[in-house]
Amino acid sequence: MLNLFRYKIIFYCFFIVSCSNFEPIYNYEIDSNIREGITDMYVLPVEGRYGTVLRNELIEAYGSKTTSKNTHRYTLQSTVSSGSSGAQAYESDGTASRLVSNVTVTYAVYDSNKCLIFSDSNSTKASFNSKSGGFDYGNIASEKQAITSNIEYNVKDFYPFVYNAIKNKKSNLPFIPPFLTIKNFKGCRG
């Protein structure tokens, strides 16, 4: 009886596996085309105090190679905003010893026809030491380091979303009269 049960389990496992349409997680032919497209992404300059930090991280993450034609498949536009808020830990005298740094980065990816493929924002938090031996320059340095690390983490955390947006890119609808009547139509002139 036990052997019959084992054979049934084995049969069902083979049946399920043979009937399912399993595909490998990474199809290297498709992945290589997407990776090539991502490395052919132009990162626009970013405004703000930490704009150069963000742009350098984006260039490092996405490659941004230059071509002989000086054209790119994709363009990445982003903004960064940062701030410190909320105390995370308190001393016995009631003063805060650790503060929280918030960083929000917005991403917008455009294709070569300047059509929007993907747009979203990502917020991350990090804590930093607000007391540094009673000197204010230590507080400022630890806050800058926390924001810089936070931007680096934000870019690496958001990379899969940009990758999937390029991988699952849909064709753009043309600007013709039936589509123009649709509310919030997101067509693109190509």
Describe this structure in words.
- The model has no long low-confidence stretch (mean pLDDT 75).
- The protein is flat, with a radius of gyration of 24 Å.
- Helix 3 links the parallel strand 1 and strand 2 (74-90).
- The longest helix has 32 residues, at 136-167.
- It has a four-stranded mixed sheet with strand order 1-2-3-4.
- Helices cover 41% and strands 26% of the residues.
- It is α+β, with helices and mostly antiparallel strands and 190 residues long.
- Helix 3 (51-62) runs parallel beside helix 4 (136-167).
- It has a single domain, classed as 2-Layer Sandwich (Double Stranded RNA Binding Domain), CATH 3.30.160.
- It has five helices and four strands.
Q: What does the average pLDDT come to?
A: 75
Spatially, the strands of the biggest sheet line up as 1-2-3-4
> What is CATH's topology name?
Double Stranded RNA Binding Domain
What's the β-strand tally?
4
The ordered string of helix (H) and strand (E) elements is HHEHEEEHH
Biggest beta sheet summary: 4 strands, mixed
Please give the count of helices. Answer: 5
Please state the second-level CATH architecture.
2-Layer Sandwich
Low-confidence stretches: none
Whole-angstrom Rg? 24 Å
Rounded to the nearest angstrom, the distance between the terminal CA atoms is 67 Å
CATH class wording: Alpha Beta
Share in helix:
40-55%
- Write down the domain tally: 1
Sheet-strand content, in percent, reads 25-35%
**SS-based structural class?**
alpha+beta
CATH superfamily: Lipoprotein like domain
Q: Note the overall shape.
A: flat
